[in-house]
Amino acid sequence: MPDAFTADGATVVVTGGASGIGYALAQRFLREGAARVLVADRDPDRTRNAAIELGERAHPVTLDVTDEDAVASAVASIEEEHAPIDLWCSNAGVAAGDGLGGDADWEASWRVHVLAHVHVARALLPRMAERGRGHLLVTASAAGLLTQLDSAPYSVTKHGAVALAEWLAIRYGDAGVGVSCLCPQGVHTPMTAGDGADSATRLGGAYLEPHEVADTAVSALREGRFLVLPHPEAAEYELHRSQDRDRWIAGMRRAWAKLRGAAQGGTRSR
Ligand SMILES: NC(=O)c1ccc[n+]([C@@H]2O[C@H](COP(=O)([O-])OP(=O)(O)OC[C@H]3O[C@@H](n4cnc5c(N)ncnc54)[C@H](O)[C@@H]3O)[C@@H](O)[C@H]2O)c1
Questions:
Q1: Is 62's C-beta closer than 6 angstroms to any atom of ligand 1?
Q2: Which of 61, 69, 188, 251 is most buried, by CB atoms within 10 Å?
Q3: Quick one: which of 196, 194, 90, 203 has its CA closest to 146?
Q4: What's the short name of a Pfam family annotated to this entry (predicted)?
Q5: 269 has a pLDDT exceeding 50
Q6: Vertex 109 angle, CA 103 and 113, to 5°
């Protein structure tokens, strides 16, 4: 188990922090007493506005997480100008590609959902290991434990995110660096705003609000857990998948056939 993380007095960075789950994480860590939260996102105006809304302990950082040099200089300058980073929430994400998608969808998904976590791991985890403390929270998805039937690029790269987070947890745990992996099912955010009744994300059941996801993340970090499951039933689905892969695939085929029926009813949105 990673060491427990508590936000009180901490320096926290949240990528994708200007919206949805990232914004809720930033808000919740501030409420938990974080000394500062760096809200990192790619659009300068949205990032600045989010930090203003979050209050005086929030600071905007314009950052494209797919730019490795920019990530490395953000890590260095945050640590120089503020304090050593206690928690980096690698949360930015994109919804790219319907079905098998095009190569550009795979490229975008790979860069944001996998390489961005590699970039921050290279820049920050050696610093944390040297200090013997620190935590990385990777936002993957239940799609990374199970699947996401609407989008192959999303599903496959989120599997990559889970695998990378596990690898980092194993390799850095003995150095005092904790790694956790946040795997929600549906959450009401701008990313899912266009989901119709037939969206595959709805297969997982009810959508949560971002603040509920943030609540689960804070508790799981406090308890030092690797896997953060705002929808606890995802653990059960994953168990079924691992116990009998053929049966699980057959069940998912039935679910897809049902969704296709709903799509013919005309509610499909992405
Ligand atoms: N909403 C859901 O149902 C759901 C479910 C499971 C996992 N997730 C994951 O949660 C994370 C947050 O998603 P959300 O639902 O809050 O979506 P969102 O669209 O509200 O927020 C995503 C944020 O990431 C930022 N971003 C995208 N690419 C970036 C880049 N290259 N550099 C910096 N910032 C970038 C966007 O600007 C945006 O502010 C994502 O990783 C997403 O895949 C979401």
A1: no
A2: 61
A3: 203
A4: adh_short
A5: no
A6: 155
Which residue's CA is minimally distant from atom 29 of ligand 1? Answer: 92
> How far apart (Å, rounded) are the C-alpha atoms in residues 3 and 225?
8
Flag whether pLDDT at 30 surpasses 70.
yes
266: exposed, middle or buried (C-beta count within 10 Å: 0-12, 13-18, 19+)?
exposed
Torsion-angle region of residue 121: left (phi > 0), alpha (psi -120 to 50) or beta?
A: alpha
pLDDT single digits (tens) 98-107: 999 999 999 9
Q: For ligand 1, is residue 92 a contact (CB within 6 Å)?
A: yes
Atom of ligand 1 at shortest range from CA of 139:
41
Q: How far apart are CA 238 and CA 242, in angstroms?
A: 6
Measure 105 CA to ligand 1 centroid, in angstroms. 15
- Interaxial angle between packed helices 44-54 and 20-31, expressed in degrees from 0 to 180 and rounded to the nearest 10: 30
- Catalytic site positions: 154
User: Which superfamily, per CATH, for 11-264?
Assistant: NAD(P)-binding Rossmann-like Domain (3.40.50.720)
Q: Ligand 1 center to residue 92 CA distance, Å? A: 4
Ligand 1 atom 7, closest CA = 141
